[in-house]
Amino acid sequence: MSKKQIYTLEYPVRCSPAILYEFLSTPAGLQEWFADKVDERDNVFSFSWNGGTPDKAELIEKELDKYVRYRWLHLAKEEYFEFRIEKTEITNQTILVIKDFAEKGEIKDQSQLWEYQVKDLFHRLGN
Asked: What 3-state class would DSSP assign to 7?
């Protein structure tokens, strides 16, 4: 049994859900901000950083322009990371919601890593 717990991060984004979804769900989009190289075959994505050995994640669930959920193949089956696209009711603003798992003492570091990645995404989106 994993000692990791789920945590959630939210980021307001200035772009349409359709454009954001492309950056979260396709190899070309993910390669723009998440990893140096991204390939996909049969719903298994290979992510490479700095020319290293690829980490593989299976796309386990998705809904067009709403969310995409991946599971790292080397981690516990119940763990995943998810990108969800929400709209606020009052302002109709797009919100990127990231869910991930980490050990309690690592949540702050993991959150900072996501922060760095999301900044790159926002740069690509022109935010």
From this structure: strand
pLDDT in tens, the chain (127 residues): 558 999 999 999 999 999 999 999 999 999 999 999 999 999 999 999 998 999 999 999 999 999 999 999 999 999 999 999 999 888 889 999 999 999 999 999 999 999 999 999 999 999 8
The correct CATH number of 5-125 out of 3.40.50.1390, 3.40.50.2000, 3.30.530.20, 3.40.50.300 is 3.30.530.20
Helix, strand, coil percentages (3-state) for the chain, rounded to 5, are 30, 40, 30
Calculate the dihedral angle through the C-alpha atoms of 34, 52, 113, 68, rounding to the nearest 10 degrees: 40
